[in-house]
Specification:
- By secondary structure, the chain is an alpha+beta fold.
- It folds into 2 domains: about 70 residues; about 150 residues, 2-Layer Sandwich (VC0802-like), CATH 3.30.2130.10.
- A 6-stranded antiparallel sheet has the order 2-3-1-4-6-5.
- Helix 1 packs across helix 3, helix 3 packs across helix 4 and helix 6 packs antiparallel against helix 7.
- The chain is elongated.
- The two termini are about 30 Å apart.
- About 20% of the residues are buried.
Length: about 230
Amino acid sequence: MFTPSISVPQAIKEILFSNNLYLQALLAGIANYTALAEKIKPDVEKLTASDVNMGTIVVAIKRLVDNLRSKGGEDTISTSNDYLIEDVRMSLTGSVIDVDFNESKFDQFSFILDEIFEKATNHKYNLFQTDKQIRLLLDDVEEIRNTAVRASKKFDGKIRDGLSKITITIPSLLKSNDTRTYHRFISSVSDIIYNSRIELQDAFYTPNEIVLVLNDTDAARAYELLRAKIKMR
């Protein structure tokens, strides 16, 4: 098991930099240091693997905020790449359909899936499966759509169109050696989309990829915002 061994100020910086809401409230002067210290105390103690006095946390928060303000305040937060990572690959695919099968007997339409995958040989697709659901993200081309429509009618599925997807591939080295940065990265991607007031239709997380599903009208803007923050391969 991983045993954290970082200082209290470092732990507080990691916690606050992973939560944009905390930072904005602190820089705007509307956050109560004592209340925030009490809220993040369990996380600080987990990261430092030690008991930490409330007063120590309050002082560390104040010093961090003073330091950020002296370096430009909110601009420092909005342009910082401390919580993102290098060597990430990202792609944007337009004209995607989302096919959703709920609580079906999967073995009964396996031949339909085989037909879809055969037609999708030269196209990108994603499949996400749980015990009660199969989700397919497919290129919206006529032969694939026709097969998907036929399957949705027969097996009570639903199709959404007018979608695009952003696929973010994460280096395996990061996942295996630095899980805190990996999880902070996932949180940061979500924050970028949320803070930009972009409506996210769906999101799927795997050990290798993040797949974001958005309306066609929002996808290009979301891609540019993420590309500005992510150092891509």
